[in-house]
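Backbone-to-sequence.
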């Protein structure tokens, strides 16, 4: 029953299929459920989205929020409009990660490097929201040819 307990949805709001939002308790176990929810939302929206890559991006951002923000909850929101998918992970914390190269011998600290590489590889962009969250925008056409490199599809 771990999967059912891990994600406590406090409020899931969807409007016109193009919007997704969920708030979860900032606990380590919440990441798989959030990832699954985002994947299902992206898949319902039809083609043109690199689902596997965006799953990894959301996983990294939610994990960072859980580990470093000190917040009690994390909000993940998504919107499809004007040819772009926008995802946001907000935690309300004031922690802004340091910029620079990660320590190659450390057990962590590469998440944002991975996020940047994936998003930029899809022709997108990303940034911080006043220390309370991170946003990611990827063109819907980023995977219009049906390629989903993380699943080996295409």
């Amino acid at each position: 029953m771990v999967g059912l307990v891990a994600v406590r949805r406090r409020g899931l709001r969807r409007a016109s299929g193009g919007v997704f939002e969920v708030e979860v308790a900032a606990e380590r176990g919440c990441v798989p459920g959030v990832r699954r929810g985002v994947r299902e939302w992206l898949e319902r929206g039809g083609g043109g989205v690199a689902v596997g890559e965006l799953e990894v991006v959301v996983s990294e951002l939610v994990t960072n929020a859980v580990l470093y923000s000190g917040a009690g909850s994390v909000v993940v929101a998504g919107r499809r409009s004007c040819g772009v998918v926008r995802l946001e992970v907000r935690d309300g914390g004031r922690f802004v990660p340091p910029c620079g190269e990660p320590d190659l011998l450390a057990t962590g600290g590469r998440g944002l490097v991975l996020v940047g590489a994936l998003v930029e590889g899809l022709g997108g962009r990303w940034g911080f929201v006043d220390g309370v969250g991170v946003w990611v925008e990827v063109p819907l056409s980023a995977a219009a040819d049906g390629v989903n490199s993380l699943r080996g599809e295409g």
